[in-house]
Design goal:
Rossmann fold; about 40% helix; six-stranded parallel beta sheet; 17 helices; 3 domains; Type Iii Antifreeze Protein Isoform Hplc 12; single chain; alpha/beta; four-stranded mixed beta sheet
């Protein structure tokens, strides 16, 4: 990896990578806590709907007021300081900005921001993976047409999984499965912001003291985030979604090669080449020692007996046969690692994960019985949770992606657990993100139909 060297060269030449950050929540703040220490990087602008709160976040991560006191983007370019604003499009359209880090967490807004950035010749690092999950393949195509790079965000689990898959394939290994850890019990699919802290393992007092967002943590726990992130991985790597969705089998790190192998060989996979999540707790709630709740993994296959022998000689964690082995990262540091993506797109013109196909979809399922007239409230809310589904099945059923299940009205009764379809809701096709989704469905429909034959 030579990113630091290339960034240092940009710094020495007086031509830093100028970045615009959209949204100043937890992920962005973690990145900003590191950004001033990265050579050749200039955070020229930060847009947030509440600039005052953004300023508080900057102060929390040791920025000095003078460092974010630029009164305009022009002044920021001249002085090397940062301009705070509530106008995202002003940052997206400014000719001095090179990379947009989309961190709003709002998938509908993020789609519009990305498309606008492409029109203005900007690279986009999509931290809002919810947008990538429902329209990423088309965003990747639009970026390519514009001659810019669209990328998943390093530090978040999807890009780290993509990195492991790329490592495996570059080394010549067959990828059997790849994914992330999670804490899962089946009833978590009904978790709401009112119940999340007990299931998560925090007191409400500790959550308030940490300024934690209950909707965000609900999205993590109820299965939405795992579905969204494995969708992004499948579409960026060509791995596939299990036909029945994520199984969340309880599994320790050392058991991954045993569990993540085909059923015909004693594992749980219906076939090789899938994404999956493993749980850090047993179905009765007992914690699993040496779990990988916070990390990512890839299970690979030795292509011959010589490679299998090498696995043994170098103490790789394998199944009993020695044929399947696991490589993993036990942790991910989300925004603290985002500089890798910013640098990769700017100085090497490479993504750290980008959709190459439409293999999977993260669709909305009812958390409880829903009545006509109710409004769906998206990820981390009270009405729906995300679940992983093969893209062909989603398209055939007319499933509503979880990223678009925001503020749309239910028009017919639904039962708990039921997949939400377009026939169940009154969708607004005037929304740009909705139009882009429809465009992607039309583009991929013939390919998915042919693959199903």
């Amino acid at each position: 990896m030579n990113l630091h060297k290339l960034l240092s060269a940009r710094a020495a030449a007086g031509k830093p990578v100028r970045v615009g950050v959209l949204g100043c929540g937890k992920f962005a703040t973690m990145f900003l806590a590191q950004a001033l220490r990265i050579p050749g990087l200039h955070i020229a602008g930060i847009a947030d709907i509440a600039p005052g709160k953004a300023a508080e976040q900057l102060a929390r991560c040791d920025w000095q007021k003078a460092q974010y006191a630029a009164r305009s983007l022009g002044e920021a370019m001249d002085t090397g300081a940062t301009h705070l604003t509530d106008d995202a499009m002003a940052i997206v359209s400014h000719p001095g900005i090179e990379v947009i880090a989309e961190c709003t967490g709002d998938p509908i807004a993020a789609t519009s921001h990305a498309l606008a950035a492409f029109r203005h010749g900007k690279h986009v690092v999509m931290v809002t993976v919810e947008a990538d999950a429902f329209v990423g393949p088309l965003l990747a195509q639009k970026a390519k047409e514009a001659g810019v790079v669209y990328s998943l965000a390093y530090g978040d689990q999807p890009a780290l999984i993509c990195d492991l898959v790329d490592w495996a394939r570059t080394c010549g290994f067959g990828v059997v499965a790849a994914g992330r850890g999670h804490k899962w019990l089946p009833h978590y699919s009904r978790t709401t912001p009112d119940t999340v802290w007990n299931d998560w393992g925090l007191s409400e007092a500790d959550a308030r003291a940490g300024g934690l967002n209950p909707r965000m943590f609900t999205c993590f726990l109820d299965g939405s985030k795992p579905a969204i992130e494995t969708t992004a991985v499948a579409n960026a790597t060509g791995l596939e979604a299990p036909s029945a969705g994520l199984a969340f089998p309880p599994c320790a790190v050392h058991d991954l090669p045993h569990v993540m192998r085909p059923r015909s060989e004693g594992g749980l996979l219906e076939r090789k080449g899938l994404v999956e999540c493993v749980s850090s707790i047993e179905r009765d709630g007992r914690p699993i020692p040496h779990h990988i709740r916070w990390g990512v993994w890839v299970v690979v296959e030795a292509g011959n007996d010589y490679v299998k022998r090498c696995f043994k000689e170098y103490a790789m964690t394998t199944d009993a046969s020695g044929r399947y082995g696991v490589m993993y990262k036990w942790w991910h540091l989300i925004g603290l690692e985002l500089g890798v993506s910013i640098a990769a797109v700017a100085v090497r013109g490479e993504s750290t994960g980008c959709p190459v196909t439409w293999n999977a979809d993260a669709v909305a399922a009812a958390k409880r019985d829903l009545k006509p007239g109710e409004l769906l409230d998206g990820e981390g809310g009270y009405t729906v949770a995300g679940k992983l589904m093969p893209a062909a099945d989603s398209l055939a059923r007319g499933a509503v992606p979880i990223g678009l299940a925001h503020r749309i009205k239910v028009v017919r009764p639904m039962k708990e657990g039921q997949t939400v379809t377009w026939a169940d809701v009154a969708a607004d096709d005037t929304v740009e993100a909705m139009r882009v989704r429809r465009e992607m469905e039309r583009l991929y429909a013939p390919k998915l139909a042919k693959a199903a034959e």
